[in-house]
Fold this sequence. Notes:
A: 6-stranded mixed β-sheet, 13 strands, 31% strand, B: mainly alpha, 77% helix, 0% strand
Amino acid sequence: MENAVSVSQLVKNFVLKKREGMRWTESEVKAVDGITLSIEKGQSVAFIGPNGAGKSTTIKMLTGILHPTSGEASVLGCVPWKERTRLAKRIGVVFGQRSQLWYHLPPRDTFELLSKIYEIKQDVFKSRRDMLIERFQLSEFLDTPVRKLSLGQRMRAEVACSLLHGPEVIFLDEPTIGLDVIARQELRDLISEWNRENGVTVFLTSHDAGDIQHVARRVIVINHGRVVLDDRVSRVRRQYLREKVLSVKYADTPESISLDGVKTLKESGHAFKFEVDTLAVPIEKVMSEIMRIGSVVDITIEDPPLEEVIAHIYSAPPTEFGDDAPDDEPDENESKSS
Amino acid sequence: MSKYFYIALTSIRSRLAYLGELGSKTIFLFVVLYIFLCLWKVTYAETNQSSLGGLSLKQMLWYLVVTESIIMSLPTIATLVDQDVRTGALAMQLVRPMSYPLNMLAQTSGERVLSFALNFLVGSIIALIFVGPLDFNLSGIAMFLLLIPLSFALDFTIYFLIGLAAFWLEDTTGLTLIYSRMTMILGGMLIPLELFPDGWQQILRVLPFSAIVYGPARVFVTGDLQVFLSVLIQQIVAILVFAFVIRIVYNLALRRVFSHGG
Lengths: 338, 262
């Protein structure tokens, strides 16, 4: 399949000026340090990393705002920083912390203006706008000045704005920042729906594990300006989430469990919480042991939150995960839960 | 080109949403015009002249209406550019299929045209009350209407350059302040160039400030074709020079775009 984005050995250095006493010293900071990746058309990718990892810098290079120090990139066949204006018509960009809506005007006016800026034909514009209004449920506040909208409403309008010209790739830089749980969920659904149904390639950065889980199929983790992990979201969960949490409720006091790889986290009355290391012991064995020691009333199996995985990856020193590490590891803890 | 025209229209519409501050400007305009009317009255009486620098007292007040309206309609161009650069909001502009300088020109011009029209309207009413109508001539107004947009465009190029300085400087408000005061004083906001000492006049007529403030106002009150032509040439040359400088500086600046804000 054709690639929407391909990047090879992309490097961006910044000159950082520091003042020591009266003297200014310059040092070079590697914001992006040789990133190589490619994204197929229609894929949804989460691009994550701790603050200062180089996410935004990469997005800015891919959207043509920044010139790289070295390396190559191609987005929809364009070199972004050389063909910025041409590329702009084919990509959509949402920066969660910046607004493209006119503050004193209702979203409808910004839509109208964008249709002129992107030179969208009026009939195409009207039908697409109406579809976006319906899908993003904008009609109730379409004619309300943006300054009076809630953040959730505003972000829905922002994302709709960036889809107005029918982009083939959409870059979302922390689109759910500051949103409440429901608004966040709504926005995620809309983005992944748009990805599935309209085939738009989604490139998303976020600090929210839920965003990654619900929107993306693939996750690329960067840290210290390098790709430290690039894999399917589901596989990352399995690989780095070997622990599962089992909450079990017994009818009466059970025998104690004694299996390697099973830890009792909590115990209150007849309710237990076990942590199972699925690499040390197959989940099947644990289940039968749990059934054996007492009469089970209720049982739930949970994965630890993706946040833990991310935290684990972030905290790892740059050398622990090679670019190809995840693929080489055996897939033995393939379980069928969740 | 139509997109930039539409940006200007949108900016007018947006400006209409918060007209409240215009009220305070109206009061300010009233006070300024009243004070200067009194000052000029005394000056004309003391010197026993009916015309100073070729202007009668009535023309002098109308001259002030135009210059004050031009100065007071100034949008915060440099501040907008400075903030776009400093906060990284520039990124949002650069991902659009349009030119940032032209977008800025359209946006601030829309705002300025509206603001100028309103200030001028209020100023005219005040002048009508104080000194009565000016002996207008249609060609003077036509010439004035041609100079005004060029005056705004020239003013824009300089403020835009000052805003771009944010790529290199910690703070551009100092530059803005210096330039705006120079426009006011050397541009002839309060005193027409003719009343400056001869040696000064020679210099001031070549500097861009007078093409922004003095030129359009003088042409408006006197309809002087000679002044019109020289101001027109002055404006066009200055705009071309500054546009060229912007081109160079802007391209240099784009290479310095940092990833502000992470």
